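S1.2 Input.
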Amino acid sequence: MGFFTPQAHRLISVMPASAPVLTGLNSATLYVGVSLAPLVGQAGIAWTGAHRLGPIGAVLILASLVTAEWAHTVIRRRTPHPAPTSRTAPATPSEAT
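S1.3 Output.
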C-alpha cells in the first residue's frame, strides 16, 4: 500500500486539473491489480509449478520497473521546463562590492 500515495502524487503533478478523475482511476487500477494477482499466481503455479513462481514474479516486477521508467521518461519530455531567470540583485552582500 506504500505505492498508492507516490503514484497519486505523480499523476496529479502531471495533470492537476484532472486530479479527481486520475485519483479515481488510480484506485480502480489498484483494485483490479490486487484482484488479478491471485489469478496470475494460480496460473503460474499450474503452468510451471510452485518452484518457479519466484522467477515469474521477478519477470513481472522487472516489467513493471521498465514500464515505470518509460512513463517517467515520457512525462519528463512532455513537461515544459521553466526558463532560466537572470539575477538582478546580488545573492550575497559580498557580491555587491
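S1.4 Remarks. The CA atoms of residues 5 and 46 lie 34 Å apart.
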